[in-house]
Amino acid sequence: MPIAVLAALAAGACFAVAGVLQQRAASARPDTESLSFRLLFRLAREPLWLTGIGLAVLAYGFQSLALAFGPLSLVQPLIVAELIFAVPLSARLHRMRLGAQAWLGTLAVAAGLALALVSARPHGGDPDAPDLVSWLLVLGATGALVACALTAARALHGPWRASAVALAAGAVMGTQSVLLATTVDRLKQGLGATLSTWQTYALVVASAGGLLLIQSAFQQGPLAAGMTVIDATEPAVAITVGTTLFGETIHSGWPVTGFTVLGLVMVTAGIVSLDSSPQIAALHRMERDTGRAPDEPRP
């Protein structure tokens, strides 16, 4: 168990630094590259961004090690601690200190996520259970959510825009997690069975699209506005889709459901607190002024 705890915390720290480095590189790119694969092509040439990707890979290694020695219900909440590392570190790199509102928002999101994950604890399910119609309904609902989030992002500004794009990113990555579970399950039947199913190729598309949306969210606003929403949306969508498609079950009843709802309320309140924080808004302006080209208008 101590190995699981240490490995999970190491994964959280690596994810935190990886997010900070990726967001710092992405925020320097012009707005014209947002939601375009040109953004990824340009970032792939940035050593800072590549270092962030390398740290993310290392973090997945630590996460795998933690899961080998401890249950998901212990590991996942500890990894959520990345927010406590990442948000202050991002502000520190800009020579800013978080105020009470930003700190409370960050802690509320991290604690709320941990509480909701621990109390819900999804389990069971069969990745082979859903038929094509069920898959199409879920993918259609995810697509509608992404479209609504990106449409809202066009009407928003500052940290709120970054959070809207991050909502789309979290929805895609949550669905990607479900597709990954299906693909891993098919691997048990051999490589041929895996390559003959459409979910394998949908996984590739979702992974590429999710990466683009994550980097676009990082480009549009401070890390606090993007990472918090992604970290909240991804497991929420994955659990919802998992229970809908695979028949997974979550713990319910009193007081478990009460703790889950309380956790979700804390996450929502924390995100609103961060997006409305004057310090986060000032950090956004600082990043945009630093990364904007001389002839590019102020957003």
Helix percent band? over 70%
Number of domains as seen in the coordinates = 1
Please state the structural category.
Answer: mainly alpha
How many distinct helices? 13
What's the oligomerization state? Answer: single chain
**Cα radius of gyration in angstroms:** 19 Å
Beta-strand segment tally: 0
Largest β sheet strand count, sense and barrel closure? none
Q: Are there runs of 5+ residues with pLDDT below 50, and where?
A: 292-299
- Rounded to the nearest angstrom, the distance between the terminal CA atoms is 49 Å
Share in β-strands:
under 5%
Shape: globular
H and E order: HHHHHHHHHHHHH
Provide the residue-averaged pLDDT: 83
Keywords:
single chain, 299 residues, mainly alpha, transmembrane, DMT family transporter, transmembrane helix, EmrE-like
Protein described:
- The chain is mainly alpha-helical and 299 residues long.
- The protein has one domain.
- The chain has helices at 2-26, 37-43, 47-69, 72-79, 82-93, 100-120, 132-155, 159-187, 191-195, 198-220, 223-246, 256-275, 278-291.
- α8 packs parallel to α11 and α11 (223-246) runs antiparallel to α12.
- The longest helix is centred in the middle third of the chain and has 29 residues, at 159-187.
- It is globular, with a radius of gyration of 19 Å.
- The relative contact order is 0.16.
- The chain crosses the membrane at residues 52-81, 102-120, 132-152, 164-184, 196-214.
- It comes from Streptomyces montanus.
- This is DMT family transporter.
